[in-house]
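stuck on this fold:
=====
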Amino acid sequence: MPAMTVISATAVPDHLRGALTRWLLEVTPTLYIGTISARIRTELWNSLTDCLTEGSAVLAYPAANEQGFTLHTAGPQRRDLLDFDGLTLIAFKRTSNSQEDAKSA
């Protein structure tokens, strides 16, 4: 059954942007939204992660869990997804400057 899907992808090749816009609307640069089947979502995500060299991507879609959605990430991210008793939480990665500040305090 088709479900609302959201993909945010930065620094992706033009051919991949074209593939995403065949199935999803690009509502703002790097943000794609649409209602697609699980098979199409999986194929798009696999194509995206295979072609991702410099950028990063986030995929969100409905799921039968407490939050009502599932998140996937690819590429270098400033945030990590953490599973906390079935809930997905977001943790910020520390930068080298913040680690040095913590040591000097």
Notes: The mean pLDDT is 89.
